[in-house]
């Protein structure tokens, strides 16, 4: 009897730690199940899609938000190749990233790509992927989260387009602020900016000013539209006889100016004389509808020009005044000529 009692007591004492271990195991399993239920509850409620990818690139897990984003059934999509839904042009990059994640060459990978939904619409999707250990004895996998960022991407594109449009508008406005509307030549503002730039850089500089002889007779005889056309023709003729570095500008009314940039005085004189001769040798034919007549009108026009060389210590206004004095000398000398 004593031996039996001792045996029973021994078994009881040994069972106590085992019971404690089993009880602890059950509590841990209960807590784990509760945590998993909480995690699944969270994943069921968020709008981002939680996912895991098999080694073969197929979906191993997808949270319920997958259906909201893609319109596809979650259970039917498990085992389906991930890349089947994504833009072909991004396949190579995504495959390389998956390999690098599994090999621990990178810790995370982010990409915004496009996905075609079950209804056939294109959505912009942002992926964040990372390496995970699924279970002991199983190699590393790739999990992550993706979300529909279509609204953000489209807004960004619209903002970028608006910014581009604004830049283009600003550029057009800047060009218009420096362009004569009638002739398309640089205007007075651009003309003075060019002179100031040349003077500041110490380049050789000469300036010619010219206007149309007896221009009022053209306006009075054939109307201002005909006079405007004559100004346009003169602008074209003068531009055709200048070097690429020279600038001809309309600085007011029938008055034009030429900046000879980096040209020695003698060479500037030769070019200026060529412009005077070219205008005098041209015949400007105006259609009768423009000239206010029942037939086309051939006009011969001449210009008078004054030229001045930049000297140390004078600014653009003084240089222009020197050229104007030479212009008046050309007019007083009989017009259709160049004076220095």
Characterize the structure shown.
Helix 11 (316-332) links the parallel strand 11 and strand 12 (338-339). The protein is an alpha+beta fold and 340 residues long. Strands 2-1-5-4-3 form a five-stranded antiparallel β-sheet, sandwiched between helices. A five-stranded mixed β-sheet has the order 7-8-6-11-12, sandwiched between helices. Residues 35-39 have low confidence and may be disordered. The longest helix is centred in the first third of the chain and has 44 residues, at 2-45. 24% of the residues are buried. Helix 7 crosses helix 8. It has eleven helices and twelve strands. It folds into two domains: 28-153, PAS domain (Beta-Lactamase); 188-339, Reverse transcriptase/Diguanylate cyclase domain (Alpha-Beta Plaits, 2-Layer Sandwich), CATH 3.30.70.
Query: How much is the radius of gyration in Å?
Result: 43 Å
Q: For the terminal residues, how far apart are their CA atoms? A: 144 Å
CATH class membership of the largest domain: Alpha Beta
* Overall spatial form: elongated
- The helix content is 40-55%
Outline the biggest β-sheet: 5 strands, antiparallel
């Amino acid at each position: 009897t004593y031996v039996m009692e001792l045996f029973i007591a021994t078994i009881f004492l040994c069972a106590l730690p085992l019971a404690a271990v089993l009880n602890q195991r059950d509590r841990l399993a209960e807590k784990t199940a509760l945590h998993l239920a909480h995690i699944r509850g969270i994943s069921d409620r968020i709008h981002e899609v939680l996912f895991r990818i098999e080694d073969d690139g197929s979906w191993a897990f997808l949270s319920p938000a997958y259906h909201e984003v893609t319109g596809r059934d979650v259970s039917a999509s498990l085992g389906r190749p991930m890349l089947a839904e994504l833009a072909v042009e991004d396949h190579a990059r995504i495959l390389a990233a998956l390999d690098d994640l599994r090999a621990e060459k990178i810790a995370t990978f982010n990409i915004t790509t496009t996905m075609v939904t079950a209804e056939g619409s294109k959505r912009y999707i942002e992926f964040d992927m990372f390496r995970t250990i699924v279970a002991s004895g199983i190699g590393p996998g790739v999990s992550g989260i993706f979300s529909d960022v279509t609204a953000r991407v489209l807004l960004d594109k619209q903002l970028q387009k608006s910014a581009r449009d604004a830049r283009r508008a600003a550029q057009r406005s800047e060009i218009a602020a420096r362009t004569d509307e009638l002739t398309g030549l640089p205007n007075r503002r651009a003309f003075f900016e060019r002179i100031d730039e040349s003077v500041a850089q110490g380049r050789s500089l000469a300036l010619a000013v010219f206007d149309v002889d007896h221009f009022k007779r053209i306006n009075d005889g054939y109307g201002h539209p005909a006079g405007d056309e004559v100004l346009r023709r003169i602008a074209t003729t003068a531009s055709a006889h200048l070097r690429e570095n020279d600038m001809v500008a309309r600085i007011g009314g029938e008055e034009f100016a030429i900046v000879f940039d980096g040209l020695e005085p003698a060479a500037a004189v030769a070019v200026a004389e060529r412009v005077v001769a070219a205008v005098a040798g041209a015949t400007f034919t105006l259609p009768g509808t423009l000239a206010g007549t029942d037939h086309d009108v051939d006009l011969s026009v001449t210009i008078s020009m004054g030229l001045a060389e930049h000297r140390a210590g004078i600014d653009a206004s003084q240089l222009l005044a020197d050229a104007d004095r030479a212009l008046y000398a050309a007019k007083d000398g009989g017009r259709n000529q160049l004076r220095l």
